[in-house]
Amino acid sequence: MSDQQIPKTFDPADIEGRWYPHWEEKGLFRPERPNADPWTLVNPPPNVTGSLHIGHALDNTLQDVLVRYERLRGKDAKWVVGVDHAGIATQMVVERQLGQKGQKRTDFSREEFVAKVWEWKEESGGQITGQLRRLGCSMDWSNEQFTMDPHFVKAVTKVFVDLHKDGLIYRDKRLVNWDPGLKTAISDLEVEQAEIKGHFWHFRYPLADGATLADGRDYIEVATTRPETMLADMAVAVHPDDERYSSVVGKMVELPITGRRIPVVADEHADPELGSGAVKITPGHDFNDFEVGKRAGIAPADMLNMLDADAHVVQTADGLIPDEFLGLERFSAREAVVAKMKELGFLIPHSVTTKEGETEELDAEPRKIMTPYGDRSNAVIEPWLTDQWYVDAEKLAEAPIAAVKNGDIGIVPETWKKTFFNWMENIQPWCVSRQLWWGHRIPAWYDDNGNAYVAMTEQEASEQAGGVPLTRDEDVLDTWFSSALWPFATQGWPDTDVKGEGRYPNDVLVSGFDILFFWDARMMMMGMHLLGDVPFRDLYLHGLVRAADGQKMSKSKGNTVDPLGLIDMYGADALRFFMTAMESQGRDIKMDEGRIEGYRNFATKLWNAARFAQGYGIGASESVAPPAATTAVNKWIVGETIRTAQALDLAMADYRFDAYAAAIYQFTWNRFCDWYLELIKPVLQEEGHTDAAETKAVAGWVLDQILVMLHPVMPFITEELWHKLGARPYDLIVSKWVSSDSRSLDPEAAAEVDWLIELVTAIRSSRSELNVPAGARLPLYVRDASTETTARLDRNEAALERLARVDGISASPAPEGGSAQIVVGEATFVIPLEGVIDLDAERARLKKNADAAGKEVRALEGRLSNENFLAKAPEAAVEEARQKLADRKAEKQRLDAALERLG
RNA sequence: GGGCGCAUAGCUCAGUGGUAGAGCACUGUGUUGACAUCGCAGGGGUCGGAGGUUCGAACCCUCCUGCGCCCA
After folding, report:
1. CA A522, C1' B6: Å apart?
2. How far apart are CA A223 and CA A221, in angstroms?
3. CA of A763: nucleotide with nearest C1'
4. For A515-540, how does the pLDDT look when each residue is reduced to its tens digit (9 = 90+)?
5. In chain numbering, where does the motif 'HIGH' region fall (predicted)?
C-alpha cells in the first residue's frame, strides 16, 4: 500500500475499508511501548443493545482525537473499550423477542431466561463495536470488556461485599420509585418528571368524636391529585401555626369509604397558603408523606400499603378497604374513589364560570401536575414501600466533592462544577436493587427469619449463618453499579495493581453531560473509596448533537440523523472533522450538513495538494526535524508549520477541539495550499532551479507534518497519503508528532513573505476592481522603494509575476497616462493602464482606500490625544497605537498623492 | 420557585479589555494542467435591549427581553 501514484479522485470509502483492518490487525491501536509514559482513557461503554447514534459519533470522535494525539506524542496510549450489559434495556429486548413468539419471561426458569439473553448477546449484541470501527476509533479491542465478564462479576461482588462490610451498603425499608411497567425499583435518576394536565379533587374528611374547627365546621377539607391513595391515608396534616386547625390537632378524622380513624397531626409540611391548608397523608405512597409519617411516629414497617407490584389495589394491613375496590388498576381505582366520594356527599365540587357567564360545577379543579415517569418504560412511577439495598451515597460523595473542590479532578468546562456540587451535596441514598433477572445478582443470602448474610460465595454466607439453610436474594444490581467500576475493573482490578501500572487514575474522561450523575459521579465515588484516588484527572463534558432546527433528536420525533449514512455520503474523516470543529467546550452542536460537506471538500483539497506535490517529485520526508532552509519562502513555511503545531498543542492542553480543527484547517488550506504551493511553483517548474532540492525537501517535510497534525482528526486520508507519498519505516498512526522547536522560526523571512502576500493581494484586488481582464499580464513600476523592498522584489520576482500576473518589474518612472497605483508599505506600485483603465473607477478605488485609512487615523488620533489614555493605558498599548497611527498616516498620504497624480 | 446556559454577518458558529472573524450562502470573475468538491476578488454586522465600571467594553457588573436545559 505504499509509494504509488495518487489517484485523481479521492474515494473515502475505499480508503476507510482498507486502513482500519490494517491498523487493527497489526495491533497499532496499542503498540508495544514498554518505556513510554502510560496514558489512559476509558470509553463510556455503550449498551449491548445499542447502535451508533450521532451522540456516540461525537463522544467517540473527541476521544479518538485525544488518543491519536497522545499516541503520536509517544505515550503508551490505552483506550479501554467495551460494552455494558444494560440490565433493563437488554431484558426488555429479549422479552420483546419472546413476546413475538407468544412467550413471556416467566414461562422460563431464571437460568433458562438468562441463557437466552446470553444467546441474544452472542448473536446480535454489540453491533455498535463494528460501527465504532467505521468511525475510525482506535480503541484497544484486544482488551475488549463486557460488564458481565467473569472478572467483572468478581469485582462487582467484591465491591458489594466490601461496601457492606464498611457499612456503606445496607438494606432498608423505604419508599422506592417503583416502575409498575417493568416491575422493578429504579433510582431517582431514572425517573423523569413531566408536566401533564391533571385534576385537583377537594374532599371533606369528617372529624370524629364531635370535634369541630374554630369556625364550627365538623370536617376538614383536603385536596389531592391522587384521590385513590386515600384508601391508605394514615393522617391529616396541618401547619402547627395554623390557628384554623389548632383545635383539632391530636383529634381524629374518620375517613370516608374505609372508616379508618386517623389523627390530625401538626407538621410544617402543610402549607397554610395552599388550598385549605390541610393535607391528607399517605406515608406508604408519597415521598413527602413518608417523611411526615415518620415524624408523626409511624414506623415504615407499619405504613399501610394498598398497591401490588402491578399497581392494582390490594387490601391494607388493617383490612378496611371495601371489596369493591380490591383488584382495581390504580387509575380505575381513582375514578371509583371519586365516584364513591361524590355519592357519599364528601366531594366538594369546583365551580367555574362559563363563557356565557353561567356557573358550572365540576368534580375537580383542572390543574397541571408534575408526574414521574420511568425513563425506560415510560410508565407512571409509583412510590412504593419495599425492602431494597441502598448505597450510602452521601458518605461516598464526600471525597469526590473534595477532589473537585481542590482540583484533583478538573471539570471542563468549569461551569458544570456548580451542577455537580448541587447534586452531590443533596444526594439521596442510591437504591441499587433491581427486580430483574439479567444483571449482577446481589450476593446476599437470607435465612428463614429474613436475616441477610452478604458474602463472596454461598459457602461463606452459610458459614456466617452457622449452617442454616439459606436462599439467595432474587434481585440484581443497578447496571450503573457495575459501570461505576469501569475505570479499574476493566483493567484487571482487584487482581491487577492498576495504580502501580500507572493506569489509574485515568488521564481524562470524556462524556456527555447527561450522564454526569449516572456515571461520572458514581465512578468518582467508587474509585475514590475503593482505590483511594480519583478515577480520572480531568472530566471533559460535551453537549448534545441537535437537529438542524435546534430540536433534540429523538426516534419518536423522527428527526434523528444516522452517522453511518453521513459516513457513506461524506466519509468518516469529514464527519469527524465536523464533530471536532464544532466542539467548543460543551456547547450543544446543531447538525449542519453543509459543514460536513465543507470538510469533505477540505479533504479533497489536501488530496489534490498531495497529488500536485507528488507530480513534482515531492515525497516522504527523511527527517522528523525540519530540513535546512535558505530561501525566505521555505524558512517562512517551516516557521508557520511550527507555529501551527504549537497552536495545536495549546488547543489540546485546553481541550479546545474547535481551535485544533480551525488551526490545522487554516494552515493547510490558507497557508500551505493557497500560498506556499503557489509561491514555489516557479522553482518547481523551472528546469534545474538552484532552490529545487531544498524546496522539495521542505515541501515534503511540511506535507508530512500536515499529515501528522491532521491525523488525529482525519485518520484515514492522512494514513493513505502518508503511504502514497513514499516508503515509510512506520505507519502514520504510530509516527512522531511535529518537533516544534522555536529556533526554526525566522522573523525576517516571515516579514518578507508577509510583505509579498500583501503586495500580491493588493495588486490582485486593484486589478479586479478595475476590471482588468484576468489573463492580462501587465508591467509593474515601483516608486519610493527602500533598498530592502528593492531586494525583496528582486528575490521574489518570479513568484510576483506569476501570482499577480505581472510582466516585468521596473524601478524607472512609469509612463505618463492612466494607471493603477498600489500602496504597500513605503512604496507605491504603478501599473500603467493607458486605454484600459476606467479613471473614475480607479479614483473611486483609491478614495475608498484613502477614506478607510483616514478613518483609522482619526480614531487613533482621538485616542492618542486623550490624556487619560496616555496616563492610564499600559505603555505597550500606547506605543502600539502610535506605531499604527504613523503607518496609517503614511499610507493615507501616499494614497492621497496617488489620487493627486491621477488628476 | 431555585440553578445553569445561550442571544455576534442571510445560516451555523469562533472571539474574556485595545475598536469584529471563520465555514457555508451571496455577487463579480476565471488566467500557465494539483484541485470547478476549485482559484481570484467583493458585498454584508450600531455584537438582543438599557444602564454602569473603565482611558477604552462583543468581552467585566446590574437590570430587562427572548430562547433552551437541569432541579424542586
Report:
1. 29
2. 7
3. B41
4. 888 899 999 999 999 999 999 999 99
5. 46-56
Cα distances (angstroms) measured from residue A64 to each of A38, A71, A579, A648: 16, 10, 11, 15
The domain spans of chain A are 184-374, 576-745, 773-902
Mean pLDDT comparison of A239-243, A556-560, A661-665, highest-scoring range: A661-665
Identify the residue whose Cα has the smallest distance to the C1' of B6. Answer: A587
DSSP string over A399-438: HHHHHHHTTSSEEESTTHHHHHHHHHTTPPPEE-EE--SS
ipTM of this predicted complex? 0.94
**Nucleotides on strand B with an atom closer than 7 A to protein CB?**
3-6, 11-15, 18-19, 22-25, 28-32, 34-35, 37-42, 54-56, 69-72
Topology of domain A773-902, per CATH?
Helix Hairpins (1.10.287)
Long-range own/partner contacts, residues A320-328 (CB < 8 A, 24 or more apart): A320/A258, A320/A259, A320/A260, A321/A231, A321/A257, A321/A258, A322/A257, A322/A258, A325/A231, A325/A257
CA of A447 to C1' of B72 (A): 41
C-alpha–C-alpha distance, residues A450 and A699, integer Å: 78
Give the pLDDT band of residue A195 (cuts 50, 70, 90): confident
- Is the pLDDT at A677 greater than 90? The verdict is yes
Asked if residue A555 belongs to a known ligand binding site, the reply is yes
For domain A576-745, the CATH superfamily is Isoleucyl-tRNA Synthetase; Domain 1 (1.10.730.10)
pLDDT digits (tens, 9 = 90+) for A763-805: 998 888 888 888 888 899 999 899 999 999 999 998 999 999 9
Q: What is the pLDDT of residues A55-95, one digit of tens each?
A: 899 999 999 999 999 999 999 999 999 999 988 888 888 88
Distance in Å from B9's C1' to A369's CA comes to 44
Identify the CATH number of the domain defined by range A184-374: 3.90.740.10
Asked if A544 and A55 count as a contact pair (C-beta separation under 8 A), the reply is: yes
